Automatic annotation (TrEMBL):
InterPro entries recorded: P-loop_NTPase, SAM-dependent_MTases_sf
Gene source species: Vecturithrix granuli
Cited Gene3D superfamilies: P-loop containing nucleotide triphosphate hydrolases, Vaccinia Virus protein VP39
Cross-referenced SUPFAM superfamilies: P-loop containing nucleoside triphosphate hydrolases (SSF52540), S-adenosyl-L-methionine-dependent methyltransferases (SSF53335)
Top-rank taxon, per record: Bacteria
Name of protein: Methyltransferase domain-containing protein
Length: 559
């Protein structure tokens, strides 16, 4: 059992049911912090439990590690909205005895239309599994539920189902699992909310959560869109366009559950059968000429919409070159030197998971820096710089080694990051959303963070390689965004860090990034802007020692 003063909220659904919309709606309330699919590990964990690959105790242990976070002071409810939680309800209930559940239900005709249009359970997905890409969409596909492995039917019966029937089965099966699991716990701790009625249910939801009632706006996210030029990403075809074959299949698999929750659904949905059903079905058949995973297609389309043509074509070229090499059994990887060069986010996260390590422990191992992160955070804490504050800013968080630990200590409502590596910035924002906010980065300013808003501004391993003028340009903005009584923490190479031995070591390593900053000039610059140096220490970095300084901004009251 995990203790903490926050009430845990879990929003359960089938997917394609508004889980992102309800999370963003609840996040508008000052007493609620609700994340959407913030734990990618749940994709695997849930399916391994459903397929009876792992036991109750094993899954419970993994969930304990996953949800073991410090209480968040500024909110009373911490929520997680995820479509993979349905079969984990009894274990979550055991871990969090006081938690609450919201069952978000969407009409089966609409869910099936949406999932079928996205190719769920299709031969197209099997082709993607064969490619074994590192895309997050691959994990969703790899861990798609299978009726035979869930014990719902035999392998022969599962193989005989059409793609459409498998989507129908999934909607009924998962909602039945949710219903059965919720009815094992106190009925006062869970609530059914229908997506179609969510706007009129806001007051009831807030009353259920025992928070103050207030107006909230529902913004429907992740809507299905037609992607121009891409054959295998389709707009959903709804009930009114279905032919007799699809309607019969839906009634067989979903009719009873629809009658239970949407009594007049058939009358409301009744329309003329589509005369083009076979044409629609033909258009949804798998084509071996389409090699790219569907989720990547969608993200690439979104990048075009955001006026990022360079990144679009970069990812396009990278994928197709990689596919050509994969055909002949080769895999392209970025080359890096342990402890100095660039490491790819997807590859690093995947390797760390394979080794059963968190990203921090894994990168410390490959860079021979074991325990360094904890040591530096301990120094920061002992100096008094890790006190709770509303907003934090970090320059160059990279793999998030420090970010994770500092969020636990400081518990900010917002954590701005300025990171030039697009893949790591995206991973950090996705993993630690909504607390972490990725800011546009130009490499020398914090122009998107307001004046005097941060209680902590810090950087690690950044100013060891930035040219002097860029470094001081950052210093100027760190001074600007730090509020009175706040702290600025960073490291750099002072003159004393470089002697003849260190120079020979750097020359032999062929690593050319070290930059020397004069210690006296750095301290003097901050002193002239009302900062007092409260602590400094050195730690091993590269072939020398970087020097940490911790400044506190003095206000009128404490001058």
């Amino acid at each position: 059992m995990l203790a903490g003063k926050n009430i845990r909220l879990f929003i359960i659904s089938t997917g394609r049911s508004g889980s992102q919309s309800i999370a963003q709606m609840l996040n508008q309330h000052p007493e609620i912090l609700c994340k959407h699919e913030s734990y990618p590990e749940l994709i695997r964990i849930s399916t391994e439990f459903a397929h009876r690959i792992k036991s109750w105790e094993t899954i419970k242990h993994e969930l304990l590690q996953l949800f073991e976070i410090s209480p968040i002071n500024k909110v009373s409810i911490v929520g997680e909205s995820d479509q993979k939680l349905g079969n984990l309800i009894p274990i979550l209930n055991e871990i969090f005895p006081d938690c609450k559940f919201i069952w978000l239900l969407r009409k089966g005709t609409d869910v099936v239309a949406s999932t079928f249009a996205r190719g769920w359970f299709s031969e197209y997905e099997q082709h993607i599994c064969d490619l074994q890409t590192q895309d997050i969409g691959y994990q969703w596909i790899l861990h798609r539920l299978k009726g035979n492995l869930c014990g719902a039917m035999s392998a022969t019966e599962w193989d005989c189902l059409s793609d459409f029937e498998k989507n129908c089965w999934y909607w009924t099966y998962w909602n039945t699992v949710i219903y059965d699991n919720l009815h094992l716990i106190d009925q006062n701790r869970w609530k059914l909310v229908k997506l179609e009625q969510i706007e009129s249910s806001i007051d009831d939801i807030l009353e259920f959560l025992h928070v103050e009632k207030m107006p909230l706006t529902v913004s429907y996210k992740n809507r299905a869109k037609q992607v121009p030029g891409w054959k295998h990403y389709h707009l959903p075809v709804y009930w009114s366009q279905w032919g007799n074959t699809r309607r019969t299949a839906f009634n067989k698999w979903c009719g009873d559950l629809m009658n239970q929750h949407y009594e007049e659904w058939e009358r409301d949905s009744k329309a003329q059968c589509s005369t083009k059903e076979s044409e629609v079905e033909d258009n949804l058949r798998f084509s071996p000429n389409t090699l790219m995973p569907q989720p990547k297609l969608l993200r690439m389309y979104q990048k075009i919409k955001q006026y990022r043509p360079f990144l679009f074509f970069k990812h396009w070229i990278k994928y197709w070159i990689s596919s050509c090499f994969n055909t002949f059994g080769y895999e392209l990887r970025k080359k890096y030197i342990d402890g100095a060069g660039y490491i790819d986010a997807d590859e690093t996260v995947k390797t760390a998971q394979t080794k059963g390590q968190c990203v921090r422990d894994y990168v410390e191992t490959i860079w021979d820096q074991k325990g360094r992160t904890q040591q530096i955070v301990k120094e920061m804490k002992n100096a008094g710089s890790l006190i709770p504050c509303h907003r934090v800013c970090e320059i160059g968080p990279g793999t998030g080694r420090y970010l994770e630990l500092i969020i636990q200590q400081v518990q900010p409502a917002q954590y701005d990051i300025y990171e030039i590596a697009d893949d790591w910035a995206a991973w950090l924002e996705r993993t630690y959303s909504p607390v972490v906010v990725r800011q546009p980065t130009d490499g020398h300013t914090l122009q998107h963070t307001p004046n005097e808003c941060c209680g902590l501004v810090h950087a690690h391993g950044v100013f060891v390689c930035l040219p002097l003028v860029y470094a001081f340009e950052y210093f100027r903005d760190m001074i600007r965004v730090c509020h009175y009584g706040g702290y600025v923490v960073f490291d750099f190479y002072p003159e004393s860090a470089i002697d003849n031995h260190a120079i020979e070591m750097w020359l032999a390593s062929h690593r050319y990034y070290p930059v020397i900053l004069p210690r006296v000039a750095v301290i003097d610059y901050f002193s002239k802007h009302n900062f007092v140096l409260i602590h400094e220490f050195s730690t091993k970095h590269g072939h020398s020692f970087s020097h940490y300084v911790i400044f506190r901004k003095q206000g009128e009251a404490n001058r």
